[in-house]
Structure prediction request, 48 residues.
Amino acid sequence: MKKIVLKEGVETVEDGAFNEFVKVNKIVFPKKLKKLELVHLGIQESDN
Prediction:
């Protein structure tokens, strides 16, 4: 399995951030992520 782990301190992940990672099976986001924009995957979330 290929995975990406984003460490604590990352606050925003913008659309297109993972476009080049076509073999990733899992992405681990930090607990305090403030903004997530993954429009191409059909996901849009924010704590605002």
